[in-house]
Amino acid sequence: MAPHKHNEQDDELTMSTNELLQGQLELYHHCLAFVKSLALKAATDLRIPDAISRRGGAATLSELADEIKIHPTKLSNLRRLMRVLTTSGVFSLVQGKDEPCDGAAAPPEYYELTVVSRLLVERSPHDLSPMVDTMVDPVSWNALLKMPEWFTEERPSGLSLIEVAQGCDFWDTTVGDGGKFSGGMAADSRVAMQVLLKEHGGVFKEVKSSLVDVGGSHGATATAVAKAFPHLKCTVLDLADVVALAPTNDRVTFVAGDMFKYVPPADAVLLKWILHDWKHEDCVKIMRLCKEAIPERDAGGKVIIIDMVVGYPVTQQHDSKEAQAFFDVYMMGMDGIEREESEWSMIFSEAGFSDYKITPTNGIRSIIEVFP
């Protein structure tokens, strides 16, 4: 047998025992990350956060089983599901405070809400459970499974991932979804605006008298702004079929229209989580129409964008960086994109704007004020 010829590439692949085990651990952890998402979806569908809340914020396994009415044979499986959810920080597991007597069993364990699961309690003013329904969704998962084909084959390359997987674009998938997508967006707006108006309300307070929320759906964002700043006349622009289903609202005026054709005149235009849905050239077109709708900068005109600036600020925590990267690939499924500052800057420049200001929030999004 011929001796094995040394190859420098062999050195690159050589690993110690510890490296092999660590690499295997990390690899399997990545492979099974989807279990965390699906466990979260199961907890939301079973209304486990509500069950714990009804028990005063703490529930044993058997109390939880009674509350959510699981099948009696599934108690041990519920414990396994809760182990994933406590390990991942959705719930916490604490020992009962009662000291056991001699020979008595150990105090029972209780599941409690965390900062994550408190956002999933239905009666809470900041319930984000509709967003779990929106994001942990078979349409998105099936689309991302098509990435290898989409990247390498000619025919799919001209379509979005969702078009490859579903045969229709993203917006078609939201038709007939029972309001799941619009419900998720409304829930996000209610929570996001609570924080943004409290921490960064000056962005809106500076607007003279009128604001138009482009793509504002049923007005959750515009209503929050109008409530916080009663001097502002707030208008929502959205497609006719969306506006037709908007609930009665005495704080907001609804206008049916296409943001690619017309933006109603106002002192400021608001775009919350809109531009990340669209390609560069589409964003430039929308921003040009926004520029036509507002007065000059010295008269107070500006566009307010609430969206992600990937990598901004540079001091952000690892969880925030990872969430931004996840969101970007998630948006790739519908041909959207989460942008870095340089990409935003190009859009603003091509649309004819002269300046912008980025204000990071404590979350994953920023507020961008763009000036004509």
Based on the model shown, name its key terms.
372 residues, Arc Repressor Mutant, subunit A, Rossmann fold, seven-stranded mixed sheet, 19 helices, S-adenosyl-L-methionine, COMT_C, EC 2.1.1.4
Reported for the largest beta sheet, the result is: 7 strands, mixed
- In terms of DSSP E residues, the strand content is 5-15%
Shape: globular
Instruction: For the largest sheet, list the strands in their spatial order.
Output: 6-5-4-7-8-12-11
Condensed summary:
The protein is an alpha/beta fold and 372 residues long.
Structure description:
- The chain has 372 residues and is α/β, with parallel strands linked by helices.
- It folds into two domains: 20-96 and 108-120, Winged helix-like DNA-binding domain superfamily/Winged helix DNA-binding domain (Arc Repressor Mutant, subunit A); 138-371, Rossmann fold (3-Layer(aba) Sandwich), CATH 3.40.50.150.
- It contains 19 helices and twelve strands.
- The strands form three sheets. A seven-stranded mixed beta sheet has the order 6-5-4-7-8-12-11, sandwiched between helices. Strands 1-3-2 form a three-stranded antiparallel beta sheet.
- Helix 15 links the parallel strand 4 and strand 5 (233-238).
- Helix 13 runs parallel beside helix 15.
- The longest helix has 21 residues, at 180-200.
- The chain is globular, with a radius of gyration of 25 Å.
- The model has no long low-confidence stretch (mean pLDDT 92).
